[in-house]
Write a structure and sequence with these properties.
single chain; 272 residues; mainly beta; 9-stranded mixed sheet; 5-stranded antiparallel sheet; 22 strands; 35% strand; globular
């Protein structure tokens, strides 16, 4: 039987993943996942696409929604949830929406680490949440600061298959790749390679999900999450073996059809 191997949250978008034993599933994603992000001077999202060194930063969510950010050789940065005194319009993947800005101390700490001007922002009120792509979501379904969908699922067997393809390719020295390259929320074990491509509805424990589309991958997957160095893989191998139209795909995007808690070890059942 398939089972949930691990659960991962990213309190600040594009910072290092944090493994947890369990997480509450909310309609817009896992509790505490991607509620904060960085923006540049033009109010556009800053991710590992532009700043691979974000992988070297870690964030831990506080019970009240604040975060503690850490980096090698730096004192920790504690950031409380900012007062929603004024909405700040920002842009992520060409879409604008409102967030709330953290204080200048957070901006200065992060800017000093990255060597460029950035600001830390928080997705505060439920009204600030972004609508899911209507081609895949239902009216009223929303997402946090994740790229497009509330959760991302990957499978151990599919990564093993991909690593075999990398080993047989032009850059075998770059493999095997760890799962953190793909920044999933849920990692499933006990499946056949690429089995998740055919799923449409699943339950993880008692929580139901719709499997809405494969995840198109970007340059972030070529970034070593421990050193921030970039290579060619897995994009070169995905381009040869996992191209779907204009996208190179690995993993599946999920939308919750209910709430609850998912835990490592939970059974994963395919309903459709």
């Amino acid at each position: 039987m398939s089972a949930l191997r691990s659960v991962h949250v990213h309190p600040v978008k594009s910072l290092a993943a944090r493994s947890v034993r369990e997480a509450a599933v909310e309609p817009w994603g896992l509790a505490g996942d991607r509620r904060w992000m960085l923006v540049d001077a033009a109010d556009r999202a800053v991710t590992q696409r532009q700043q691979p060194r974000l992988a070297l930063l870690s964030a831990r969510a506080l019970p009240d929604g604040g975060v503690v950010v850490t980096a090698p050789g730096h004192e920790p940065l504690t950031v409380p949830v900012p007062d929603p005194v004024a909405a700040l319009p920002v842009e992520l993947h060409g879409k604008k929406f409102d967030v709330v800005e953290a204080g200048p101390a957070a901006h200065a700490w992060l800017g000093a680490f990255l060597g460029t001007e950035v600001r830390l922002v928080h997705q505060d009120a439920p009204s600030y949440r972004r609508p899911v792509d209507p081609a895949y979501g239902r009216p009223g379904e929303t997402v946090s600061l994740a790229d497009g969908f509330p959760l991302l699922l990957t499978a151990v067997a599919s990564l093993d298959a991909l690593n075999t393809l990398i080993a047989d390719g032009d850059h075998p020295d770059e493999g095997p790749l760890p799962m953190d390259r793909f920044r999933p929320n849920l990692v499933v074990e006990g499946t056949e390679p690429w089995e998740e491509d055919g799923w449409r509805r699943i339950t993880v424990g008692d929580v139901p999900f719709r499997v809405v589309k494969p995840c198109g991958r970007c340059v972030v997957t070529t970034t070593d999450q421990r050193t921030a160095a970039r290579g060619k893989e897995p994009l070169r191998t995905l381009a040869r073996h996992r191209r779907r139209g204009a996208q190179l795909v690995f993993g599946q995007n999920l939308i919750p059809d209910g709430t609850g808690t998912v835990r490592a070890g939970d059974p994963v059942r395919v309903l459709e």
